[in-house]
Write a structure and sequence with these properties.
Layout lengths: L7 H9 L5 E3 L2 E7 L3 H18 L4 E5 L2 E6 L10 H13 L7
Antiparallel strand pairs: 1-2, 2-4, 3-4
Amino acid sequence: MPVEPLSQKEIEDRLAELPGWSLDGDRIARSYRLGSHFAATAMVVHIAQVQEELDHHSDLTLGYNTVSLSVNTHSVGGAVTDLDFTLARRVEDLAPGHGAS
């Protein structure tokens, strides 16, 4: 089944289900502030594992006590697709205080 870009309405509806996530140009994005730099580093490792499982990768930035990511789907010209929301949901589920710790 080919990956298709989502409409603006579909993107807005899905973002409403993911508090903290937003549309940033042609990507969906979110930043997390964690309790320590070590916790932020551990979260990056967990996100990297999810990305490998999905074979879908975001731009991922580790800062001081922060993790930021933004994602779109390169194979459809940099549009937002279901793949991006699947990754966002998985990241949200592993984020401290947002799902599984």
